[in-house]
Design brief:
single chain; alpha/beta; Rossmann fold; seven-stranded mixed beta sheet; 10 helices; 7 strands; globular
Length: about 250
């Protein structure tokens, strides 16, 4: 049986030419991994046991496996996404599991690199998730959070994501407190807000340019959903209500 992936998500993957659901797709992954190696956060030439939290359709996990030869395990609470990832990327391992339950899925400390690409914004119970991830991380394990930053004064953010769910962009001060209480030490934050703006402008240009062809395969409703969601995100990025960046931390 084929996995059931909703049309807006499939349209997103088609525009990005791969099973990526995060800003910047391959370029973003390269920026993150290059920074980690240049800063010697992780030993070079070492095969790591890696956890992709919120792996979605599996494109990011497989890209990192292919380019960095790591042993990749992906988790996502969307069983349809896991089915798609398992069917299409057999060299990675995938499990249907929420981030908060990762310590139940993996009862021992085994991972040496844990990353989340545009996943943390969707999680309201951030401290609970950080605690669960800490329990399955070896000492000195790197944690990478690539995500939106809430630049406003209000904790509640007004937009919903492509799935129509509430967004909880990262607030810097609470994140530091959560990390300190759950055994993580923040090493560095890299602001990628301008990159996010450039990536979303490029994405929307492609979406609009390919509209006629896309509507042969997808409904106008799916197209409009993707267009409106990313246009709103771009507006908030340009008005500095929203930012983007990467937090690098390690397990104490």
């Amino acid at each position: 049986m084929m996995s059931k992936i909703d049309d807006p998500r499939k349209l997103l993957a088609k525009i990005r030419q791969g099973d990526f659901a995060h800003a910047g797709d391959r370029e973003a992954i390269d920026i993150v991994m290059k920074k980690m190696m240049d800063a010697k956060f992780i030993p070079s030439q070492k095969k790591l046991y890696v956890l992709d939290v919120g792996c979605g359709l599996g494109g990011t996990a497989d890209y990192i496996r292919e380019h960095h030869s790591h042993d990749i395990t992906g988790i996502d609470k969307d069983a349809n996404a896991i089915k798609h990832a398992t069917d299409n990327y057999p060299k990675c391992k995938f499990f249907s599991c929420s981030a908060a339950d990762s310590n139940k899925q993996f009862p021992s400390t085994q991972f040496e690199l844990i990353y989340l690409f545009n996943v943390f914004y969707a999680i309201s119970e951030k401290e609970e998730v950080l605690k669960s991830l800490a329990e399955i991380a070896k000492p000195e394990t790197m944690l990478v959070i690539f995500d939106y930053v809430n630049m406003g004064r209000d904790e509640k953010y007004h937009l919903k994501d492509l799935a129509g769910k509430e967004m909880y962009p990262v607030l810097a001060k609470p994140l530091l407190d959560f990390m300190a209480r759950t055994g993580w030490l923040l090493l560095e934050f890299v602001d990628l807000s301008e990159n996010f703006i450039s990536w979303y402008k490029d994405f929307l240009d492609k979406l609009i340019h390919q509209r006629e062809e896309l509507l042969k395969e997808f409904s106008d409703t799916a197209y409009q959903k993707v267009h409106d969601t990313f246009s709103a995100l771009l507006r908030d990025l340009e008005s500095k209500q929203l930012g983007g960046g990467v937090w690098y931390a390690k397990r104490k």
